[in-house]
Design brief:
The chain has no helices and eleven strands. It is mostly beta strands. The protein is globular, with a radius of gyration of 13 Å.
């Protein structure tokens, strides 16, 4: 099974930016890749996903216009550029591909 490793999380002030990366251990067919997040006491929720060729992208309404998902298939990597961060974006962010999940990376946005 493919393994996913996220990085790029951290602590940032409101209005700041972070860029998350997720590297897949192998080229896993031609699946879409996505990002989810889970805040304390809440269920895991969808953030964004991107098709294999990058032509189909979806965003949660809460992040539209602030987050950008992209991928580099040559590097087996998907990115999430997060701008204009808000305290409500604080969560553990998880990468997803097929049935695989990464271990998560913490994003904390201070007011």
């Amino acid at each position: 099974q493919v393994q996913l490793v996220e990085s790029g999380g951290g602590l940032v002030q409101a209005g700041g930016s972070l860029r998350l990366s997720c590297v897949a251990s192998t080229t896993h067919s031609r699946y879409a890749m996505g990002w989810f997040r889970q805040a304390p006491g809440k269920e895991r929720e969808f953030v964004a996903d991107i098709s294999w060729v990058g032509s189909i992208i979806h965003y949660a309404d809460s992040v539209k216009g602030r987050f950008t998902i992209s991928r580099d298939n040559a590097k087996n990597t998907v990115y999430l550029q997060m701008n204009s961060l808000k305290p409500e974006d604080t969560a553990v962010y998880y990468c997803h591909l097929d049935s695989a999940w990464g271990q998560g990376t913490q994003v904390t946005v201070s007011a």
